[in-house]
Amino acid sequence: MTSTIEPPDPEDGRLRLLDAWWRAANYLSVGQIYLLDDPLLRRPLEAADIKPRLLGHWGTTPGLNLLWAHLNRLITERDVDAIFLAGPGHGGPAAVANAWLEGTYSEVYPAVGDDEEGMQRLFRQFSFPGGIPSHVAPETPGSIHEGGELGYVLSHAYGAAMDNPDLLVAAVVGDGEFETGPLAASWHANKFVDPVHDGAVLPILHLNGYKIANPTVPARIERDELESLLRGYGHEVLTVEGDDPMTVHAQLLAALDTAHDRITAIQTAARQDGDTARRPWPMILLVTPKGWTGPHEVDGVLVEGTWRAHQVPLAGTRENPEHRAQLESWLRSYRPEELFDAEGRLVPELKDLAPRGKRRMSANPHANGGLLRRPLDLPDFRAAAVEVPTPGGSVHEATRVLGQWLVDVVRRNPETFRLFGPDETASNRLDAVYEVTDKVFAGTILDSDEHLASSGRVLEILSEHTCQGWLEGYLLTGRHGLFSCYEAFIHLVDSMLNQHAKWLKTTRELEWRPPIASLNYLLTSHVWRQDHNGFSHQDPGFIDHVVNKKAEVVRVYLPPDTNTLLSTMRHCLASVHYVNVVVAGKQPSYDWLTADEADLHCARGLGIWDWASSGGDEPDVVLACAGDVPTLETLAAVSLLRTHLPELKVRVVNVVDLMRLQDDQEHPHGLPHREFDTIFTSDKPVVFAYHGYPWLIHRLTYRRTNHSNIHVRGYKEEGTTTTPFDMVMMNDLDRYHLVMDVIDQVPSLGSRAARVRQLMVDTRRRARAWTREHGDDIPEVRDWSWLDSVEPDSQASPSSTAALDDQP
Amino acid sequence: MTSTIEPPDPEDGRLRLLDAWWRAANYLSVGQIYLLDDPLLRRPLEAADIKPRLLGHWGTTPGLNLLWAHLNRLITERDVDAIFLAGPGHGGPAAVANAWLEGTYSEVYPAVGDDEEGMQRLFRQFSFPGGIPSHVAPETPGSIHEGGELGYVLSHAYGAAMDNPDLLVAAVVGDGEFETGPLAASWHANKFVDPVHDGAVLPILHLNGYKIANPTVPARIERDELESLLRGYGHEVLTVEGDDPMTVHAQLLAALDTAHDRITAIQTAARQDGDTARRPWPMILLVTPKGWTGPHEVDGVLVEGTWRAHQVPLAGTRENPEHRAQLESWLRSYRPEELFDAEGRLVPELKDLAPRGKRRMSANPHANGGLLRRPLDLPDFRAAAVEVPTPGGSVHEATRVLGQWLVDVVRRNPETFRLFGPDETASNRLDAVYEVTDKVFAGTILDSDEHLASSGRVLEILSEHTCQGWLEGYLLTGRHGLFSCYEAFIHLVDSMLNQHAKWLKTTRELEWRPPIASLNYLLTSHVWRQDHNGFSHQDPGFIDHVVNKKAEVVRVYLPPDTNTLLSTMRHCLASVHYVNVVVAGKQPSYDWLTADEADLHCARGLGIWDWASSGGDEPDVVLACAGDVPTLETLAAVSLLRTHLPELKVRVVNVVDLMRLQDDQEHPHGLPHREFDTIFTSDKPVVFAYHGYPWLIHRLTYRRTNHSNIHVRGYKEEGTTTTPFDMVMMNDLDRYHLVMDVIDQVPSLGSRAARVRQLMVDTRRRARAWTREHGDDIPEVRDWSWLDSVEPDSQASPSSTAALDDQP
Predict the structure, then answer these.
(1) Xylulose 5-phosphate/Fructose 6-phosphate phosphoketolase N-terminal domain spans which residues (chains A, B) (predicted)?
(2) Confidence of residue A792 (pLDDT cuts 50, 70, 90)
(3) CB contact under 8 A, A234 and B225
């Protein structure tokens, strides 16, 4: 429904105060964009008072300031615990201005005081070299959402609200952002709100009508069409519209009260009466001009209320005296003399409007999640570990066993840990968690549904963007989570990952922001086992994307079996401020390491598997592997080599932590050159079977002594709907080809090797033909007998002394 | 509005025929998923008749078959030119079955005949090693949309309909796909339809209620809420709902007639009466059970109408006789004896239902765009080229000049070329095109708007996903286009690029699909010039993503100046079946090459810039560069070296075509080792200034003789809102640091060099401090006088003899 609201009496004194705060914030915003000096306009503006480069976005800013002012009124009158997410994060000056008005800015950055000198520094530093960015950046107190890349404000907001029953998350959606896919999908996040245990999101669609150079779609369809759409998204629409400030103040005040009443009613019904039936959540449709209160016309061209107000409406203020005069009268239109005292401090009457302490949106600890984060209570992974009598002596589905361990993680952390997935939690075989929790869903639930409930720890929507945004919002407010996804489709969030990695990188350098929990990906249903779906579902390139990010914040793990997956995931869930990418299979697969061996191997990150190796310190060749399928093929190749070329001394190296391959100058996990050379030798051929695109291994190892001897097999973009072994053959990653590679790289092997090589060629041909005839893999690839020849002949011994950082 | 439709008389003979076709398609679909042999059930099914691995998706298939049957009825009755896009592309068996029923399959693949033997081959090959994929793949006649990665069916459909006024694009949206962001955004594509010059899209939302393991959101909100949403998207909703086949046939027949009437009315009003006011376009909401007509229960558990019908409802048909018997009765329920004659051919009565020739959706040339593609009429780029009296003797904004050239491209190709961009065409300075065309927009247009009209060649929506989908749909149906985008945010379509590159790779091997036009990206507003927006807008990693794709289909260009950009873009627009990524700046920048020099340089892909080099064949050091900003810094470094270390012999190499760096075994554009060594030397230090992440250069060159001497500077994820020169300093890509790198790499330079190095260190410090004080770059980086020392001292001469492939 669309509601009509009774606005307050125009004489209501609150409106005047709201307007004064708004003017103060607008003044400070314009000052940040333009002024180097003379912050209180004590003299006519001169060229030297103006910044030489005008970098910022005015257009969205007055709307953000308006909302901040009014939310403060709501917070103080009703003692609301609220945070503010600015979808149009380009309006950085607004968040900074309000943080300064609330006193938070000077508390966090004492150099920027609350007086005239502080105001000058505030102005100068904005978009200035060595200063602060132009957006609502990590540097901005009160922010968990930068908004530079558009589309994520609602999913961040809903993530923040989860398990924070008393929190109100005000989420401003720009009407440009409204057009993006991720934002469009995330409206449906309201079907995943648990009204008992979650807080509320108040979406505010700010229709200022324009993007950079165009009108926005929602502003140019009929209003009833837009409202139909928003109601269809599950909202009650409270419209506030106008270009007369006092009228808008009156409407907005009433709308926020109404919205808060509605939220309270829904929550009360659910919490006191157990009535969790989904009802339309309120939202506000705010329709005000772009660049409102800014220059109406510049050089005879309309600016206010058009796309021309997007960035800096007066571009020539340094050189052009007319523009400068216009800027000055614009600034003076806010009547700064009424707002700031002689020393440049906010006048007491306005200061009193700010909420107190942590109720200030700029100082709310939910917007600085590291303050609230408590480590997860993690069970020992050994409780779920599988028995491994001998390497290859048992078979498990790694992710299914992980699911068993996660049962206990969920049980021990009932309010701070969630699982996110695009309809794939069961497909990815983590469904054991349904023993102790459900998938939360506020839509209609039928008797025939399984594990759906109004409360739960698992979130599933067929939108990787929404899953990622939820998890980010949940982490940024101090909690923990795991995103499981088909490997190929995690590329959908490449760009979101970029933004989150940038946030982590920047906040590492901000002492006042303690670290947050790591963003953990479990990528399964991976490239080698997309039997049903084929080529479209085969892409291992997310790893490549992630390793481009700042080394300090990214980690990539390829556990080769069940116990290593458990150990890895325990490590990841305990870690902070990283992006952890874990790639693991869900299909039945051999176990190689016992729990203790797995833990040691994971702590080292990579190591020689002595039990699979021969020849001790002087191998003829190194067979390296990373990933579950490459490990299987490598060990099978070792078995073939032992059978056919028993004199060949083979060293098997398995890599769990991919970043160990880089040197310690490049990555904190990097192996020093000496240790690398000890393991990979400095002159022997290395045949490396890798899970993903082979050139990544070269990119990580090109500085290594032995790099020119490293030969990598991996996914080379060949695939279809076929059998698992056909897939490895299509990409030359199969055991037979690895044997051929070894023979090609060890020329001293002589004529017997040539015959073995031909045998491999023939076997591959036969395997291919068999598969095409029978529609299945040749039985011998499932024959376990070859494992006899890789049975342990010695205990694994420490091959690398460096342990991973034992954070935390 | 939601419309009530009068269904036809239940005795209408058309319904029986529609049902028969549907049963035939369903029979063939189940056969594909299960059967190796006995395609006509001439004997009771035996284990050996069943495939050993059951790979496919039944759930969505009966819905797709139903729609195909009914669309054929519409096509034949009304002579409609239509194509079919299956959003739930997992239902591959449906598209294959209908193509076989229409005869197209046997025409395209003669080995799969139209009789019993052909049917057996059809069944066997599906999801079988050496056979065909399980999805609506490129191998499927009539498809331009694979649907493996969900979310793009509507944007593809709208792209296909552009400039095809007589085409009807039926686009089936799965209700799982409905939840994705890209799909959610793309509903608004109907605001960009030109009813005069474009065809129509008929969206069909198929609400079968379930995804892999969950109900879908749209199926579990109130129906009036869903309809409100769909009306809000701008549609008239025609609902067809039921689980009784004949009732649904009657409703769907009427709904399609109504939808077609509505479309005709809108188009007629626009075309005959000039009435282009936007009206609600019809869409169909089809509500039928998932896995309809399949096993209702399996092992006592409900399957039909639930998520359990998603893939293969009967999993044990080979081992379990009960399942096998259930499969047989399922197949027999379609009464194949009525559908196929004794030889396995479709009975004539049903055969007659198929449209004729190109009217068959499986044979419509719009679904095989290479058949329709005509080369663009491209003007000589020299017509727009800029005068370059000497290298660095003029300054231009490269993309603005490109815009001038595009004016003529648009003018000459008024129906086959479009520009796509997320609200950035003007920001990216291509706005000259508005001299000859407009931005198409069907929303309300105000007098104050500029260049918006109901017809136009430019499409702008703030959704990179929609832009990409539109362009793909436009290309796949035989036309041409250019997508201009901020460099950082093109990552939003990483995953879409994956899918398109896979399509290109696969169709290269399908002779019956001639090549389509290349997908051309112009990435500008790049990492080095995000002065306003800072860190969130800085990411050059799309190149890294693209080069992971199959070498045969990807090309990356980094033109260093205006004329090279023109030459490059002309090459790209003339090319076919590639993904071309062109990265170029929009800010004022020096010109280096005349039009002729630029063309030669681009044809070579890389080359020595003799005019900037000294020392001829025996340089002491090579300074290589790729990208406009790195080229500027490199030439400035050369100038500094000439001033301070005039005895040093410097070779300058500029790289336009990044793939030249790989060897010719790795990429078709790769430079043979001998030529690479001639240019980069086999033993001299190479200081490489690169636009993006530096390790990409190592990844491309690790096989080169001189690789260990290549030292790369590039973007290392350091950035903020600051000045352009501060950005290059933050990443050690600046001229001073390049000079330091040269000195560090040429130890023979001695003590004078040490003093120069210290001067560089001091100058950097001074530059940093100056910038932080004044908020602008130190004036000397804008001082052109240094250019004097890189003025040409010889004409550019051919340094590499290999020319690029001159396709087309």
Answers:
(1) 14-371
(2) low
(3) yes
Q: Does any CB of chain A come closer than 8 Å to the CB of residue B182?
A: yes
User: If contacts are CB pairs under 8 Å, which of residues 606-645 in chain B contact chain A?
Assistant: none
pLDDT of residue A807: 47
Q: Is B322 on the interface with A (CB under 8 A)?
A: no
Nearest CA distance, B610 vs chain A (angstrom): 31
Contact between B472 and B159 (Cβ < 8 Å): yes
Does the N-terminal peptide bond of residue B280 adopt cis geometry, omega within 30 degrees of 0? no
**Closest chain A C-alpha to B125 CA, distance in angstroms:** 9
Chain B partners within 8 Å of A425 (Cβ): 213
Residues A305/A243, Cβ–Cβ less than 8 Å:
yes
- The superfamily in CATH containing domain B381-590 is Thiamin diphosphate (ThDP)-binding fold, Pyr/PP domains (3.40.50.970)
| Cβ atoms within 10 Å, residue B245 | 18
Residue A485 pLDDT greater than 60, yes or no: yes
Q: Which amino acid is at A400?
A: R
Contacts of A51 in chain B (CB under 8 A): 775
Is the per-residue pLDDT at A770 higher than 80? Answer: yes
Q: Do A534 and B148 touch (CB under 8 A)?
A: yes
Judge: B495–A491 Cβ closer than 8 Å, yes or no. Answer: yes
Whole-model pTM: value is: 0.97
Q: Categorize the per-residue pLDDT at A451 as very low, low, confident or very high, splitting at 50, 70 and 90.
A: very high
Same-fold call for A381-590 versus A606-794: yes
Coil vs helix vs strand at B645 = coil
Tell me the DSSP string of B712-760.
EE---S---S--HHHHHHHTT-SHHHHHHHHHHH-GGG-HHHHHHHHHH
Compute the average pLDDT of residues B700-717.
Answer: 96
Q: Where are the domains of chain B?
A: 2-353, 381-590, 606-794
Query: Which of A152, A312, A491 is the best mutation test for B, with the most CBs of B within 10 A?
Result: A491
Is the confidence at residue A8, as pLDDT, over 90?
Answer: no
User: Are residues A498 and B506, on separate chains, in Cβ contact within 8 Å?
Assistant: no
Using the Cβ of A351 and the Cβ atoms of chain B, whether some distance falls under 8 Å is answered with no
The residue among A185, A156, A191 whose CA lies nearest residue B225 is: A191
d(CA B154, CA B57): 21
Q: Is the pLDDT of residue B295 over 90?
A: yes
Domain spanning B2-353 has what CATH number? 3.40.50.970
Count other C-beta atoms under 10 Å from residue B280's C-beta: 18
Residue A276, CA distances (Å) to A268, A441, B558, B584 in order = 10, 11, 57, 54
Asked if residues A430 and A461 have their Cβ atoms less than 8 Å apart, the reply is no
Taking only the tens place, the pLDDT of each residue in B401-426 is: 999 999 999 999 999 999 999 998 99
DSSP letters spanning A708-777: GGEEEE---S---S--HHHHHHHTT-SHHHHHHHHHHH-GGG-HHHHHHHHHHHHHHHHHHHHHHHHSS-
Q: Give how far A544 is from chain B: nearest CA, Å.
A: 8
The fold of A606-794 is Rossmann fold (3.40.50)
The confidence band for B99, taking pLDDT boundaries of 50, 70 and 90, is: very high
Question: Mutual orientation of helices B245-273 and B61-78 as an angle, nearest 10°?
Answer: 50
Residues of chain A in contact with residue B207, where contact means CB-CB under 8 angstroms, are: none
Is the Cβ of B57 closer than 8 Å to some Cβ of chain A? yes
| 8 Å CB contact of A179 and B191 | no
Nearest chain A alpha carbon to B711: A703
Q: In this model, does residue A794 exceed pLDDT 70?
A: no
Chain A residues within an 8 Å CB radius of B177: 462
Is B290 at the interface with chain A, CB within 8 A? no
Q: Which of B701, B715, B609, B589 is nearest to B654 (CA)?
A: B609
Residue A505: its chain B contacts at CB < 8 A? 717
